Amino acid sequence: MIRTLFLLSVTLFTSITASLAADELTIQQIEQRAHLPGRAAGKKPLYKEVLAGTATKEQKQELLDLYLALAKAKPAKGSQEAWQKATATLVTAAQEIVRGEVKDGSNLQAALNCKGCHAAHRPVYAIDGTLVEDAGDFGTAAPPQFVKLANISKDKLSISVYAFEPHVETSFREEEVEADGVKSVRKVPVMETVQLLRQSQISLAYVRLFDSTGKEVKGDEVWNRLKPGMTLLRQTGSKQVDPVLLKLLSPEALILAPSILPSSPAEK
Known about the structure:
Helix 2 packs antiparallel against helix 4 and helix 4 (about 55-70) runs antiparallel to helix 5 (about 80-100). The protein folds into two domains: about 1-135, no CATH class; about 140-165 and about 200-265, no CATH class. The strands form two sheets. A seven-stranded mixed β-sheet has the order 5-4-3-8-9-6-7, with no helix packed on it. By secondary structure, it is an alpha+beta fold. Helix content is about 35%, strand content about 25%. It contains nine helices and nine strands. It has helices spanning about 1-20, 25-35, 45-50, 55-70, 80-100, 105-110, 115-120, 220-225, 245, and strands spanning about 125, 130, 145-150, 160-180, 180-205, 205-210, 215, 230-235, 255-260.
């Protein structure tokens, strides 16, 4: 019964989308028509007919029209540039087949990368059906850490900062156990991560200072703005701070970053 209902729903969905022009279809409908229809009835999907060399002239043109519509669509996630690059290879491969410029579908087969495309552009939904946003730029680098400027050396070659660092502590909890009718107490290790305040020295030869717009602070302006006791942000990775995070900072905020960090777009 369940299988029968599934087949009926697939057939109904396919018949509805088949009546629509390619440009009127959603990305999901294009994928259904190009890559899935016919499977429930034991037939090959459209693209497999083309790859096998058994597709008619009309079917080849239909696949090309679907890929052209796909290239014009806007993905639910990921960049439009990456989407256009991926779909362009599909369009080119389908055009070659329609024009008779190739003897087989090897170029089309190479252009098909469903897994990679889904990972980059298919939206993710939670169990309750709500959309799960992609991490985007936030996922490329850890956010900066808050630190307090403790000291500036007299020769201005180094600074020291206070910062919290994670530390794993192990303690033991007594637990009563029973084996072969005999009760005993044993100590069970319990691990806990705590934040400990540390003071560390940083050589200024290995860091650069940026303001809240991402522009580097240079020369005497560094010493005009750095004052012991002030709170800074320290970027530990080599990637730029996410611009979305920069918008959350006050104009007076300063960011310490590794000297290998490339210049920000604000400086170019």
